[in-house]
Amino acid sequence: MKKIVVVSQDPLLTNLADRLLSRHFLTIVLGGMVSAIDSIYNDIPNLVIADIASEDKATVESINTLKEDPMFNQLPILAVVGDSTPTTRWDGLLVEDYLRKGDLERDLVSRVFLALSRSERVVEINPLTRLPGNISINRQIEDRLQRGEVFALAYADLDNFKPFNDKYGFSRGDEVIKITARLILNIVKSKQPQRSFVGHIGGDDFVFIMDAGLIDGACRDIIHAFDQIIPTVYDPEDREKGGVDSVSRQGMAGFFPFLGISIGVTDTAVRSFSHFGELTGAASEMKHFAKKIKGSSYSVDRRTA
């Protein structure tokens, strides 16, 4: 079920939105943009409905800051405005559509479906994690390279994921991927709220982009948090054993310890890269070095050529 976040302190609006939308969507009502942004960082919704009073500069600024972030500029936002508010007041508001309060009963459901339909036609995101996919990832890297930015790229994937998936099935495997996506997104954004980026290549592969001075700390925190939470996704008997009896990618039966996360890191301050393929290739190579280390780990590219 698609998730919609409704941001308003008006009980008439929130009750109406819940009544009209809850038949079709998972609806979460929040009182302000600060709590909404925390919720969005934790689990990206399909749509945000924001109630904006005529003088509510704080909400406008919060929405614009969110939409200017490369992670969330694809998130559709539907603004709800007063019946007498001039439309010229909202020229600087970065939303996809607006709806007047007097028209909510009649038009809210159709406008929500229209906004979602537009976003699905235009936006390239992973349907499981709601993170940007390969086209967006490549564009982010290429644009930063062309601007001559100094940044670090990390490439992460999970160790022992196939044996886990084979033992527990795709549903639990998908839950692990969603947990990993939320964990990486929350830690990256907590350390660098602006100009960072998290993408989902597919399967259990992720990338994230940060300032070079912050990425080591992010990798350490991601590994620590992942290793803390991952035992909870196992059945009690497998948790006690520290892993599962399953089959490897090569078809070999055996015992496979808890899922781990391996991260490879490179940055443009150390080496010069001409296009995104060179950069992602270097990060992927470092990830393979990390996977040779027992347990969750990360490896940083120190080569200068």
Helix residue percentage = 40-55%
Low-confidence stretches: none
Instruction: Provide a count of the helices.
Output: 10
Class of secondary structure makeup: alpha/beta
Stated plainly, the CATH topology of the largest domain is called Alpha-Beta Plaits
Strands across the major sheet, in which order?
2-1-3-4-5
Alpha-carbon distance between the two ends = 48 Å
How many individual domains?
Answer: 2
If classified by CATH, what would the architecture of the largest domain be? 2-Layer Sandwich
Number of strands: 12
CATH class of the largest domain: Alpha Beta
Largest sheet: 5 strands, parallel
Summarize the helix and strand pattern as letters. Answer: EHEHEHEEHHEHHEEHHEEEHE
- What best-fitting shape do the alpha-carbon axes yield? globular
Query: What is the overall pLDDT average?
Result: 90
* Rg, alpha carbons: 21 Å
Taken as a percent bin, the fraction of beta residues is: 15-25%
CATH superfamily of the largest domain: Reverse transcriptase/Diguanylate cyclase domain
